[in-house]
Amino acid sequence: MTIRENLELREKEYLSPYASLSMHTKGRAKEEQECDIRPAFQRDRDKILHCKAFRRLKDKTQVFLSPEGDHYRTRLTHTLEVSQNARTIAKALRLNEDLVEAIALGHDLGHTPFGHAGERALNRVCPLGFEHSQQSVRTVERLERGGQGLNLTFEVRDGILNHQTIGKPHTLEGKVVRLSDKISYIHHDMDDAVRAGILKESDVPAQIREVIGCTPSDRLDHFVHDIVTNSMGKNDICMSEEVGNAMRDMRKFMFENVYQNPLAKGEEGRAEQLMETLYGYFMKHTHTLPEEYLSLLAEGEPKEQVVCDYVGAMTDRFAISKYEEIYIPKSWILL
Prior knowledge:
The chain has helices spanning 3-14, 40-49, 52-56, 75-93, 97-106, 115-125, 132-147, 154-161, 172-195, 206-212, 216-231, 241-259, 262-265, 268-284, 291-298, 303-313, 316-327, 330-333. The mean pLDDT is 93. It is flat, with a radius of gyration of 21 Å.
């Protein structure tokens, strides 16, 4: 018996009857030889961790564009915080931590530079539309490994696709990540907003603070405990009505005071214009795309999709650099 098989049996013996077992995965789109050490979901976690799209997250905006300071979140630190919160919940509920971690690490791989500003811009100019959860799935299915994709299991791809509010994951592990994503960004975006001087803790309405706490760490702790307490022994992942309502109120408060705040988002118009300009340029000059994207065109992929693949995969820094390279005379850069 291999190490992997022993680990699979351990999952069967220990995990909740509602957990997703590695040995019962619905499998991969393409068959591949199983690892003798790692169960399927652990292997997927490793594939994601070592892919190029994951490394690019370190230079992609979470909320604040080019903040002055070293402690603001990026898309990568957001992803790691989602993973940590999701694993805490999964461990307490005896769910499959490997599956939770794989979904969490992969859920934002398809995000654009400049956060949701970049996503809005591509969705506006591309006739095929652009939505980051769908692009995350396309990244792992098609774009990574020179067009071969990562060949992940159904459960991981399903969790990535359905991680947003409107999503309906097929596994409890996917539902854990879906909630963890929300409580993570509510926690860290408030923390960053206080750091930036946009908000004070006292600005949070008293009725919210009374239910879920008076600091970002208090609220995060309260959310996690509430999810664990209300999901224990159930074939569902849920919150109490009181805390769920408080979370929705807190999310609404954040949209009104941070996500739509001119001080926090004042540069987003320029970011959207930059993204639209790059999209338009590469639509007219597809021959300048890197070889891996030209290969996608040669295989019959729509030009609009391939240009979105390229521009959407850029980091903030690379997108600005590419814009300068195309549109700003070199003599001006030296001034």
